[in-house]
Amino acid sequence: QVQLVESGGGLVQAGGSLRLSCAAPGSIFRINTMTWYRQAPGKQRELVASITTGGTTNYVDSVKGRFTISRDNAKNMMYLQMNSLKPEDTAVYYCYALRPSPAWGQGTQVTVSS
Q1: Cβ atoms < 10 Å from Cβ of 31
Q2: Closest-CA residue to 6 (of 33, 39, 27, 36)
Q3: Local structure of 26: helix, strand or coil
Q4: Which of 6, 57, 65, 88 is deepest in the core (most CB within 10 A)?
Q5: 3-state DSSP of 74-91
Q6: Which residues 6+ apart lie within 8 Å of 29 measured at CB?
Q7: 38 bridge partner residues
Q8: Dihedral, CA of residue 83, residue 61, residue 100 and residue 6, to nearest 10
């Protein structure tokens, strides 16, 4: 079973910053577009940002200009730099890889207080 491991969540005041990390096995990392999802209480899981193996990025409109996704192919790590955080960013954040079979991490809680 593929193991994706997130870290870096926590409690922060509105306007603050956090950096999330996701570690993946190299055999998975190098063949996948890597994606961050989040799920807030009572809401569906939503795609936050993705990054292809070549570094092309995509963001949901609500985080554009505030969040930056990146990957370090030498370390098999993906990151999400989150700036200007808002209370509505409060959620459990998950990393995701599709191939060879869909795999999710355990999630990391991000709580933004107003």
Answers
A1: 12
A2: 36
A3: helix
A4: 6
A5: CCCEEEEEECCCCHHHCE
A6: 71, 73, 76, 77, 78, 97
A7: 46, 93
A8: 20
Question: What is the residue whose two structure tokens read 């990392």?
Answer: 29
Length of the chain equals: 114
State the residue for tokens 């995701």: 96
Tally of CB atoms within 10 A around 59: 18
pLDDT digits (tens, 9 = 90+) for 24-74: 999 999 999 999 999 999 999 999 999 999 999 999 999 999 999 999 999
The pair of three-digit structure tokens given for residue 83, joined into one six-digit string: 């700036």
- Cα diameter, the chain: 41
Q: Which two three-digit tokens encode residue 18?
A: 């956090």
**89: phi then psi, degrees, rounded to nearest 5:** -85, -5
Per the CB < 8 A criterion, the answer to whether 48 and 80 are in contact is: yes
Amino acid letter, 2: V
18-36, pLDDT tens digit by residue?
A: 999 999 999 999 999 999 9
